[in-house]
């Protein structure tokens, strides 16, 4: 790859055009908009339809795919956090712990 400064010596207009296409390493590509369709597997998931997020089955909160950590293979649904997992799978257990039993 030719450095932008090196090409500026020969053709300054070309250097400006080249610099417009160079991204910093910290620049992230813009995420795809919309909800993704995901197949949840044991320890991993596969994106069936591209998108930026999935929705928590309990709270409805959008979960960015890069932050998705909790899901059910059996129910094929995602959860935003461990509390949402407990609410879905053990709803009566959460009530008992709040009552101190």
Describe the structure.
- The protein is an alpha+beta fold and 101 residues long.
- The protein has a domain at 53-98.
- It is 32% helix and 23% strand.
- It has four helices and six strands, in the order ααββββββαα.
- It has helices at residues 4-10, 12-20, 82-89, 91-98; strands at 37-41, 44-49, 53-55, 62-64, 70-72, 77-79.
- A two-stranded antiparallel sheet has the order 1-2.
- Strand 1 and strand 2 (44-49) form a beta hairpin.
- Helix 3 packs across helix 4 (91-98).
- The model has no long low-confidence stretch (mean pLDDT 79).
Give the SSE layout.
Layout: H1 4-10, H2 12-20, E1 37-41, E2 44-49, E3 53-55, E4 62-64, E5 70-72, E6 77-79, H3 82-89, H4 91-98
Helix pairs in contact: 1-2, 3-4
What share of the residues lie within helices? 25-40%
Overall pLDDT metric: 79
Overall spatial form: globular
Q: Which residues sit in consecutive blocks of at least 5 with pLDDT less than 50?
A: none
Order of helices and strands: HHEEEEEEHH
Largest sheet: 2 strands, antiparallel
Query: How do the strands of the widest beta sheet line up side by side?
Result: 1-2
Instruction: Count every beta strand, where a strand is a DSSP E run of 2 or more residues.
Output: 6
Strand pairing plus helix content: what structural class?
alpha+beta
| Count of alpha and pi helical runs | 4
Radius of gyration: 23 Å
Give a short overview.
The protein is an alpha+beta fold.
Feature tags:
32% helix; alpha+beta; 23% strand; two-stranded antiparallel sheet; 101 residues
């Amino acid at each position: 790859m030719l450095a932008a400064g090196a090409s500026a010596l020969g053709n300054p207009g070309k250097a400006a055009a080249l610099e417009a296409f160079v991204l910093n390493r910290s620049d992230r590509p813009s995420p795809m908009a919309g909800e993704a369709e995901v197949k949840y597997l044991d320890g991993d998931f596969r994106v069936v339809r591209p998108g930026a997020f999935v929705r928590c089955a309990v709270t409805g909160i959008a979960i960015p795919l890069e932050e998705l950590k909790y899901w059910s293979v059996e129910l094929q649904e995602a959860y935003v956090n461990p509390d949402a997992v407990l609410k879905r799978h053990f709803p009566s257990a959460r009530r008992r712990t709040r009552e101190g039993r």
